[in-house]
Amino acid sequence: MVSERTPEDYLLPPLFGYLRKQLRLGFAESSIQYLTLHNQTERLLVPTSSDFLDDPRACYWLVWRFASRRAAAINRASDEDLAAAREWLASLHSKSIPRHICEISFSRSSGPGGQNVNKVNSKATLKVPLQSLLPLVPTILHPPLRSSRYFAERTQSLVIQSEESRKQATNVEYCYEKLHQILRSTAKDIIPGETSQEQKDRVHKLKKAENEARIKAKKLHSSKKSSRRGGTNDE
């Protein structure tokens, strides 16, 4: 039996990438502001990375901000949008994203690998402009892709690198595999699973039982009031 996923299951994995991104931007560059109390007065501050680490209120604010945006994105998605997103995820494969929208460059590898490792440009860097990528993926994936740790603000692209191999072609394929993994993991984190008929029936029964209990409580309360009025009249 597969356990049901909670809202936290959808929020926590991409949350860490979001927080890492804000730390990397240093907050000021991302125009993030939060309200705090100082000497009994309210001031609007722009926190820095050190503020985030030193003041847990900044962390709480970011978590709240992220969760609110993510919940709003899911709530705005219609049943048709979610169904289309699930269908897209089911058909996603390593070649779903056309390679002509991607940019490949090479540089010297910095890792171990023999005498030619620093002489040959074997390290591959894959850039995928969001302007070209977002129209190809479900709308519900757009916010988490922008908050991904692979997203480069300056170029507005996903930037993926590989230097596992000494061969350029192999590292290029590794980059495309990583892109596929990023899209799949992001989609699984944000797209809720389809509610089964069993779950729908259980929710319906719970609502029905709750409604019956509410009506029963109202009748009991009304009966008590009537009995009190009747007792007063007898006196």
TrEMBL record:
Name one molecular function that GO assigns to this entry.
Answer: translation release factor activity, codon nonspecific
GO cellular component, alphabetical, reads: mitochondrial large ribosomal subunit
Q: Where is the Prokaryotic-type class I peptide chain release factors domain?
A: 96-225
**Which spans does this entry mark as compositional bias, Basic residues?**
216-228
Under SUPFAM superfamilies, the record lists: Peptidyl-tRNA hydrolase domain-like
Identify the stretch(es) annotated as Disordered: 192-235
Gene3D superfamilies named among the record's database cross-references: 3.30.160.20
The biological processes this protein is annotated with in GO are: mitochondrial translational termination
| InterPro entries given in the database record | Mito_Release_Factor_mL62 (IPR052104), Pep_chain_release_fac_I (IPR000352)
Q: What is this protein called?
A: Prokaryotic-type class I peptide chain release factors domain-containing protein
Which organism's genome codes for this protein?
Answer: Aspergillus tanneri
